[in-house]
Amino acid sequence: MKNVVVENFNYPVTPAQQLELFREVATILANVTYSPKNYVSVIREGFLLILKSWAQSDDIQLQSQAKRALANLDAAIK
Q1: C-alpha angle 11-17-21 in degrees, rounded to nearest 5
Q2: Side-chain half-sphere exposure of 19, counting CA atoms within 13 A
Q3: CA atoms within 13 A on the CB side of 56
Q4: Which of 2, 24, 54, 61 is deepest in the core (most CB within 10 A)?
Q5: CA distance linking residue 60 with residue 16, whole number of Å
Q6: Element (H, E) at 71
Q7: Using 50, 70 and 90 to split pLDDT, how confident is the model at 3?
Q8: Beta-strand (E) ranges in the chain?
Q9: Contact at 8 Å (CB) between 65 and 26?
Q10: d(Cα 41, Cα 66) in Å, to the nearest integer?
Q11: Which phi and psi (to 5°) does residue 29 adopt?
Q12: Angle between the 47-54 and 60-77 helix axes, to the nearest 10 degrees?
C-alpha cells in the first residue's frame, strides 16, 4: 500500500488496523456523499484531498470506496 498520510492520526494502531479504519471511513464518506446536502460539509472538512490520496491506494477496497465518494461529489458538480 502506498503511504497514506492523515494529519493528527497519532493513535497506537497497527498498519492493518489503520487500513481497516481508512476503509471504514471511506465507505462512510461514500455513503454520506450520496446525498447532495452533504457535499459542502465533506469538502469543507477537508476530505477531498484525503479521498484523492486514498483513490490512489494499492488497496482495492480503500481505492474503490474513495473513488465512489469522489464520483458522488463529481456528479454534484455536473
Answers
A1: 80
A2: 13
A3: 9
A4: 54
A5: 14
A6: helix 60-77
A7: low
A8: none
A9: yes
A10: 16
A11: -65, -40
A12: 130
Tens digit of each residue's pLDDT (9 = 90 or more) over 12-64: 778 899 999 999 999 999 999 999 889 889 999 999 999 999 999 999 999 99
The conformational region for residue 50 under phi > 0 = left, psi -120 to 50 = alpha, else beta, is: alpha
Find the DSSP H helices in 1-78: 15-32, 39-44, 47-54, 60-77
CA distance 66 to 51: 5
**CA-only gyration radius of the chain, Å:** 12
In angstroms, the CA 75 to CA 58 distance is: 25
